[in-house]
Amino acid sequence: MSILAQKGTWVGPSLKVLSLVRKKTTLVLKYDTSRALATSSLSLESYCQDNDNDEVFSKNRGIDNFIKSGDLGSALELFDEMPLYDVVSCNLLISGYRRYGLGKEGFKFYAEMVSQGIRESASTFSSVLGICADAGLYGEGTQVHCRVVLLGFGLNLFVRSSLINLYMHMRLENVALKMFDELPERNLATWNVVLRGFCEVGPVEKMFELYSRMKWAGLESNGLTLCYLIRGCCNGGSFDEGKQLHCHAIKLGCVQLNLFVANALVDLYSACESLIDARKAFEDIPSKDVISWNSIVWVYANHGLLLDALRVFSGMQYWGNRPSIRSLVGLLNLASGTKNVGLGKQIHSFAVKSGFDCGSIHIQSALINMYGKCGDIERSVAIYESVEEKTLECRNSLMTSLLYCGCIGDVVELFGLMVDVCIGLDEVTLSTTLKALTVSALTSLASFKVVHCCAVKLGLESDIAVSCSLIDAYSKCGQVRYSRMVFEELPSPNVICFTSIINGYAQNGMGSESLRLFHTMIQKGLKPDKVTFLCVLTGCNHSGLVKEGKMLFDSMKTLYGICPDRQHYSCMVDLLGRAGLIDEAEELLKKAPKGDSMMWSSFLRSCKVYKNELLGRRAAEVLMELEPENPAICLQVSNFYSEIGEFSTSIQIRELAMARRLTREIGHSLIQTSSHC
């Protein structure tokens, strides 16, 4: 039997029957305000009611004290001992459940409260809606919204703010903004709720538009407002806007007086790849707390500065600051990125000694990822198996580790298991599964469609990572029309999305369409990066668009300030060589970074096709100097000498290649010539 069902309910003086019934430890009070009662009886009732009110108030204070001290269990025991309780008693426990992350238990308690006939207050709705937003109970949250309207709390400022917060968590920004605009009055807390939503889901432009409206309404920012705005700049990489916010924070005195703002600035400059500004923001904090130290450790680790990260990591402990989960995760991620398993093991040992390894999902997930990225997949699986509660984050880390180590079948099998047992999936799960399917020899178009259906059912079809993975998967199957459909459904595609679809067309020999999409991206004000240029040049290469490719290559440095790297040069050398422009390809090779065998291999292939023996000999000599141990290179050079009639040299080089036991992987294609999917 539930807690609420075991006891009487304080329902106030509005009920019409008065009785006092004692059943074991349970008191049920009901009141009668009938005019037929004598004056003396009414006086007795008032006296009893006042005493009961005092007793409930006293017990409520006890519950509140227990919750604030971190003892939710004692608060529940005290509530269980109360013969009478009111809506305030329930509100305290609901907020207690929320404070300690027990969202589902808190909502169950609320449901029992309603079933007992206790009418909610504004505080009840604020707490319950907060639980629904935090715990992802979106269906339950919409039901609570119905009760809000039914009981007439729809325009209550605090309840409406909680509803706005719920719909922002649900990514229903338009609904949240509509509710916000309908409010007759808005305080700073309400504005902060909306700004927090947009700082997390974007776009940054909309967040600053709302901020301008807030200032126009005569409200001044507080520290919380600035934290949300700075975090939004972090997520959007908005360096210039972040600088302006930094200046505004200095004018308001928040940098010196508000540690949260000061720490947020460190994260801002780190996210914008400005290490010098991040370090200066850290040094400007007058009294650094543990968050400040952990932030700068994360910054150094995130930028691959191992010695600086370890120096600060040791320094913070010297000054009495205990490293947090964030510091350890940052260092574990650094170990993953640099394949430094020695560092990873040391951080693992520190985590065990500090008690973080068993109690932190983030540490466990980072450890699984670290060992996987360092090639120790057995240790990665062992840590996963040792985790008592296998969360989605841990499963995702195992999936990415398996993918990295080439265990493609295991990735697909794990995905199928998660679907079968109805474990929640997210964008990381779907994106990793799609990447695994694209490199699997047993994959069909139907497999991609199944994952696509899962994305649609979960509402993740517009997620950037999932969409780009779908675009890549469909294009590798030769189904570029499906890739274009996914792209067209994106509400506001960014550079990554455009690059994915451009690459899809390029890989399928549709260079002209790649160019059109590239120019569309430029017209939308998006700045291409190195990967975008490489994809467009690949499209030009596969379609023989020499003039367009040369113009694009030249514009990289002149118009966009991007220095071409080896891959760009290699693509251009191949493009010029395929078109028979051997002399131009050689001139470009002289300007390219030295030591790239791929470029020279492409150049030699072109020399062979167009019978240019002189330049071919030069390319063959360079290739043998660069990679004499590479059997594939030896075979290509051997074939070239055989083509020009130098059979003795050809045989000599071929024997060298055979001595190195040349092995080739069997290729496979994802393209289906006919499909009934």
Automatic annotation (TrEMBL):
The keyword Membrane does not apply. PPR repeats lie at residues 86-120, 187-221, 289-323, 494-528. InterPro entries: PPR_At4g14850-like_plant, PPR_rpt, TPR-like_helical_dom_sf. This is Pentatricopeptide repeat. Keywords: Repeat. Pfam families: PPR, PPR_1, PPR_2. One of its GO terms (molecular function) is RNA binding. It comes from the Eukaryota. GO terms for biological process: RNA modification. Transmembrane segments: none annotated. NCBIfam families: PPR.
